[in-house]
Design a protein that fits this description.
With about 120 residues, this protein is mostly beta strands. The termini are far apart.
């Protein structure tokens, strides 16, 4: 699809619903901020639903739990616990070390209570 979609849609590319995927919002230094669910992902961006209200900076890194991929993104809108992000495709991918990636993929975070480890 080229150009904006009809019906007042502002996206230049059609979004597609995805099965809910979990992810983690990181700051630009790859520090964990909050868990999220990834909705309506396209190649250019996504709608994220935060697990609870939290301050999120304009520039973030998104860690996708399924693929362990980290991508830079800019927050383009905010509505309650949902944020819309545009992926920074022209920039170099955020660098994250193997141990950092394993830590993010291997833990379930409980915001405000520290990490919860599996038994």
């Amino acid at each position: 699809m080229t150009g904006p979609a009809s019906g007042g849609e502002k996206r230049s590319e059609a979004r597609r619903r995805t099965r809910l995927r979990s992810g983690k919002v990181l700051d630009t230094r790859n520090a964990f901020l909050i868990e999220c669910l990834i909705h309506d992902r396209s190649d250019l961006g996504a709608r994220l639903r935060l697990v609870e209200p939290a301050p999120v900076p304009d520039l973030i890194h998104l860690f996708e739990d399924d693929s362990a991929e980290v991508i830079g993104a800019t927050v383009v809108w905010r509505r309650g616990q949902e944020i819309g992000v545009r992926f920074e495709l022209g920039r170099e991918r955020p660098r994250i070390s193997g141990p950092e990636r394993a830590s993010l993929a291997g833990r379930f975070y409980a915001v405000g209570r520290g990490p919860v480890t599996r038994r």
